[in-house]
Amino acid sequence: MADAFGDDLFSVFEDDSAASGAKKGKAAAAEAASKAGKRSDGKSPAGSTNIPGKTKREAEVDSTDYAIFGKKSKMEDVSDDINLADLMPKVKVQAVETVEGCTHEVALPANEDFIALKPRTGKAAKEYPFILDAFQREAILCVDNNQSVLVSAHTSAGKTVCAEYAIALALREKQRVIFTSPIKALSNQKYREMYEEFQDVGLMTGDVTINPTASCLVMTTEILRSMLYRGSEVMREVAWVIFDEIHYMRDSERGVVWEETIILLPDNVHYVFLSATIPNARQFAEWICHLHKQPCHVIYTDYRPTPLQHYIFPAGGDGLHLVVDENGDFREDNFNTAMQVLRDAGDLAKGDQKGRKGGTKGPSNVFKIVKMIMERNFQPVIIFSFSKKDCEAYALQMTKLDFNTDEEKKMVEEVFNNAIDCLSDEDKKLPQVEHVLPLLKRGIGIHHGGLLPILKETIEILFSEGLIKALFATETFAMGINMPARTVLFTSARKFDGKDFRWISSGEYIQMSGRAGRRGMDDRGIVILMVDEKMSPTIGKQLLKGSADPLNSAFHLTYNMVLNLLRVEEINPEYMLEKSFYQFQHYRAIPGVVEKVNKLEEQYNKIEIPNEESVVIYYKIRQQLAKLGKEIEEYVHKPKYCLPFLQPGRLVKVKNEDDDFGWGVVVNFSKKSNVKPNSGELDPLYVVEVLLHCSKESLKNSATEAAKPAKPDEKGEMQVVPVLVHLLSAISSVRLYIPKDLRPIDNRQSVLKSIQEVQKRFPDGVPLLDPIDDMGIKDQGLKKVIQKIEAFEHRMYSHPLHNDSSLETVYKLCERKAQIAVDIRTAKRELKKARTVLQMDELKCRKRVLRRLGFATSSDVIEMKGRVACEISSADELLLTEMMFNGLFNDLSAEQATALLSCFVFQENSSEMPKLTEQLAGPLRQMQECAKRIAKVSAEAKLEIDEENYLNSFRPNLMDVVYTWANGATFAHICKMTDVFEGSIIRCMRRLEELLRQMCQAAKAIGNTELENKFAEGITKIKRDIVFAASLYL
After folding, report:
1. What's the domain of life for this entry (predicted)?
2. Is 268 in the same domain as 179?
C-alpha cells in the first residue's frame, strides 16, 4: 500500500521480527509518531485536539460543522453576524486628474458629490521666485479652495512651500494659523524661518513663549493638546492647523498626542498635513474626512529632485558596489559580488558578539570611505551611526584629516565664538566645548542627543553654511531638520532598538538616506551602506528598495487623557476611543476579513470525505502520535542525553521548518555561548556539523543563502552544514566510518554511497537509538509518553482505515479540512476583534483604578485629586498626585523635592547607580512605596502591569546630580559626577523645569501656597547658566 508518510510509518506495528536487527519500540515509535502527524507539505498540521486516553470511538459529527476539529462552535453566516453598514466609516475616495509626477485623490463624506477645485482668480497669497513642482501646485490649489490636504513627499522635495502658502493665506484673510512640529528643536528652527518670512509669528514650546498673541503660532503638539483641553480662547480664531512631520504619529510613546489633538480640534478648522512618503496616505485622509466631516485631499509624489545611487561597502573590502542605480533598479549581480567579498574577507571583519566592530578593522573602514569620499569630491557627507559613543569614536579617528582651508577655519572660529558668547567664562571651559572646536576647524562635526544644545545648534549652522564637510550623527539628525548633504554613509545596517539588535527597516533607511542629494546643487545623491555581516539578497532588496513604513496608529490610553476627558463636559473617553485612527484602521479591515471567512467556508463545505466520522477518529489518533513524538524528541534533544552519542560517523536525520535533508553523518559538534536577550544570561547553544546531501545550486550562493537538500533526482553534493541540535529529527544507532580529510569532493561523495547502502540494508527504516535502553534516559515523564504512544499505536493499528487502500487520499482531505477549520476560527476571532471598540476593557480597568484611588466617583465625576492630576502631563500624574496628597513633599527642602522629581523625567540608560545620602534615599524609598501601592491597586483592577518594570521606570540616576546643581554647583562639577552625556543632563533639567511648572499649577489647584512656593523655588534653583542658555535660533 502506497503511503505518503514514508515507509517507516508501519514498521512500528510489525512484530519484533528483528529481520532488520533494528530496535523497534520506543525509538521507532518516536520516529513513527513524528512522521504520523506530518502533512504532505512538510509542516505539522494545526488543529489537533487533545484526546488523551479517550477510548470512546464515537464522535458526534455533523459534516457541515467545524465540530469535528475541536469544540463544536455555532457558525452563523458571517454577513448576518455583523451589521457592516453600521460600522463602516461613510467615506468615499475619488481620484483627481493631475499632470505626471504626482497623484491626487480626495476623501469625501459618502453623501457629498465631488465639486472640482476652482482655479484661483485673484492674486496669490504668496508668490514664489521659482517654478513650483506639480505636487506643490496641486496642494496650493486645495488651500486656495479652503480644503484640507495631506502632502506626502520625500524629505527634500519642498513640502514646506505648501505650509507657507496656507500661513500666507490665513494672514491675508486676518485669520489665525497654528504650525505644530514634533520636537522643540524643530519648532525653534521653524519659528526662525517663519519669523523671517512673515514677522507676525509667535512661539510656544513649554520652555519658551514669544509673542503668544501673534496670528501665526509655532508650537509643539503637546502645547496644542493642552490648549484644547483647557478650552483656550485662541482656538476660536484659528482657521488652519499645519501638522509638520505627521508620520511621527506612529511613535509608540508620543504618537498618541497627535491623535488626541486631531480628534479634539473643531470641525470648522482646515488642515495641512506634511508627511514623508507613507504608503497608506489615503487611509489617513479617509480618517480625517470621517472624523471632521470635510473633504481631505491626498497629494502623493515619489519624485526626488535629485536621484540617488545606493552603494554597498563590504567590511574588509576595498571598493564600493553599486546596488541600486539612479533609476531605482536593484543590481543583484553586484549585490552578490559584494557579499562574496565579505565572505572572502571572512573572520577579519567579524566584530565581537555585541555588534561592535572588532579590532582596528571597523575604524579603518570608516576612515577609508570618508577619505575616499573627500578624494572624489563627494562631500559634504553625513555619517550615520546608531549610538552616541560610536559617533564620537568615528569622528576622533578622523583627526589626522583636514577638510577646511585657512579661510574656512577662521570663519568656523568666528561663528563658534559668537555662538558661545552667551556662556559664562567657566562654562566656556567645559571639556565638551573645548574638545569640539579643533574638530570643527578641520571640517568635522558631531551631532547627537548627548551634545550640549548650544553646540548642537552651532554645528547645524556650520553644516548648513558648508563649513563642515563630514558630520557624524545619530538618526535624530534625519528627523525633520532640513540639512541635506551630497553623500550619506551608514556605518552599520543593524541597530539596537532597546530590545534587540535588528536590521534597520526600509522606512528608517528611506528617512536617513533621503538626506543625500542637495536640490539644485548635485546631479545625484550618493548613499553608502557599510555591511559587516552576510545579508541575503531578499533582505538587501527589502532594505534598499522596500517601501516606506505605513502610518499605523500608536494610540493608547493614558490617565491624563482619561481624566481630562472626564473633566471636559462635551466629550468622554469612550468617544476618544471610537474616533481614534487606531479604531478606524480596524473598521477598515472588516470587509477584507468577511470576504476571507466566506471564501474559507466555501472551501470547507466543498470538501466531502466518505465515511467522515471514522476518518476523523483516525486523523485525531495520528495527530496525537505526532504530538507525543515531538515530546520524545524534546527529551532526546536535551544536551546531557544526546551529546555523548553525537560522535563523528553517527547517522542523524536533519529537518528544519522548510526542508527535510534526510540522513546525514555527524562530523563534529561545538558549543556556542548565546546571550538571552531579556535577562542577559548565557544560554549555551549546541551546533552539530553534519555532512549532508545538498543541491549544487544552493551551494553556489552559500555566501548569502542557506544550503538546501538535493532534489530526489539530482546528483547533488555532500557538504558539511552547521545544524542546531533541535533540528535533528532522529538519531540512529548506526555509525559509519568517515574519511579523515573531507576537503576532496570524492571523499565526501563516498560517504553518500555508505548512507545509501545502510538504507538498502534496512528496508523498514534505519534503526534508531532507544531513549531508554541505549541512551539511558530514566525520566518518569518519558516512560509515561511511551506508554501513551503504545496505546495510540494499538488504536491506530487496529483501526479499519489503517490498511485501507484509500487511506492516503482521505487522510489528505481530512488534513486539509482541519486546516481550513483552524483558519476560519482565527478569521472569526479577527472579526470579533474588529467589531468591538478596542481598548474599551482597558478603559474600564483604568476608571476602576481612578475610583479606588479617589480620583473620580463611581458615576465618573472627577474629584479634587483628579483635577490636580489634570495639571500634570509630562510625568506619572497618578503617582505625583498621590505623593502630594500624602504630604510626601511637605517635609522636603526645595532642593530635595527637585532631586526627587528628576526620577520622573530622566529616561536614558546609565550604567552607574549613584550612592545616595539619606536625605535623598529616604524620599526615594517613600516614593517607591507609593508606586508599589499604585501597582497593587492597578493589578487588583485587572490592568496588565509589571510591578518591577513600573518601579524601574523611575530612574534615580541623576538625583545627586540635580541636588548638587540645585545647591549651586558648577556644570563642570556635576558632569564629573556621572557617566551621562552633558546633553542628556541638560535635557533632563529642562524637562524637570517643565514638570516643576506643572507641579506649581497642581499645588495652586489645591490652594497649597507653601508647596507652590517650594516648587517655584526649585525652578529658580535649577534655571541658570548653560543649562538654560537660549536657543541660537531665537
Report:
1. Eukaryota
2. yes
